[in-house]
Design a protein that fits this description.
The chain is an alpha+beta fold and 368 residues long. It has a domain of 162 residues: Phosphatidylinositol 3-kinase Catalytic Subunit, Chain A, Domain 5 (Orthogonal Bundle), CATH 1.10.1070.20. The chain has 13 helices and eleven strands. The longest helix is centred in the last third of the chain and has 25 residues.
Amino acid sequence: MSELCLKDQTVLTLKDVEGVPSDIIRIDNQELLPISLQKECTMEKLVEWLDKRSMPNTREGLDLVKEEFGEDWMRNKNHASLSDHYWLKKRTETYKRINFFDNTYSLDIGNMFFEPWVVPVNKINSNSPDLTTSGVLRKRWYQNPDNSSFLLKAESKETHQEPLSEVLVSVLCEQLQIIDAVKYDLYVEGTTMCSKCDNFITMDTDLVLASHIYYSEPKGDNESVFSHLLKMCEKFDIPGAEEFLQGVVFIDSITGNEDRNLGNIGFIRDINTMKFIGPAPLFDSANAYWNTKNVNNAVKSKLFGDVESAIFNNLKKKFNLSALSKDYGYKQLITSYPCISPTKKDNLITEISKRNMRLCNDVLNMSR
């Protein structure tokens, strides 16, 4: 028998077969269930929820890691994470002893993807939050001396540009001050260029993805994705959701990011009260600036395309965009980034400069 817990509070009691949960015996605390299980809590839904918060089979480099180190390390003992405080309890374990926020964790799994030459093949310690980190690109968690953690996310084999994109959007958001955004830096791990960001979740909060909010009720036939998401945010009483989502649409529009989805928008919840604090800072903008033409063209968001134009035109009137007329460091960042060609660098600088100048001129003309 095992238990799905939120910290040390039992949420579900589970029947195990050979150490793996196979059935739900009872729901111990309905109010503490993950949001995606509150409407329908079945074993099938629980397995689906656990799978989505785990390392996917599509992770870049996973096949090579399996070839060298086998697959035993992938057996996730308790599914503990650095994004929330749910875990599978067996026997007399306590959250105080197993959580990754207070306790030191193994670096072996991260090393297998970035520095495999330092990993002891026959003594792999898989006690790591890397097992509950989703996403296709290679990622790993590291700890600071005070046990706080930061996340590294690698460049892709296809474009090599993702870390630069993350940093460029971070710098842009800092200049415009429209919405809060995660601060990214560049970081070389092993032989790989990565983006680096601090964990913004603490022992008292968790991250709830927009997909969990959105699918808590079916979308009406006449509703847009944007309006349905807003309605669900109102249902869960999430402060500042509308302003934040509008800001996300605006930032994605001027950076040509077509990859915004319900899995890379999030909200922060206080797990002591189970009430939402507000939106998580903007994160995962790795696809921004991929296609330099998109920076200056009217790009329809795959997620919010039906409202993108109206939101963009409204916000460019509302906020002071004069900071875009200055060199806020993007040229130096692009020039010094070693992983893309000189031609791509020149195109990026040219298109971003044109975009910034056009936006500033539009705002100036509107004020006359």
